[in-house]
Amino acid sequence: MKYSKLGNTNIEVSKICMGGMSFGEASEKFHQWTLNQTDTQEMIKHAYSLGVNFIDTANCYSFGTSEEYIGKALKNLGIPRDKVVLASKVYFNEGKLGK
Asked: Among 10, 40, 44, 92, which residue is least crowded by beta carbons within 10 Å?
């Protein structure tokens, strides 16, 4: 895996970022094709084993469950928080930033 420094920090971030839009609870009102918690965890485990340490998500992906699934997967896999760079975007949904 190739890495780059994040800005002026010493943080090494993989040049490949895993997108979290496909993680979270499926919904008829949003994405019906998302991965469940078990499959999300397996995907993160595999990507991390290949050196991917950069995950992107947003509070509106799968109504916030993408962020929840990613967090649970990292915890369950025992991946230290300081070994992963999480990027998230904020979508203002009627005054609420998440659950």
From this structure: 10
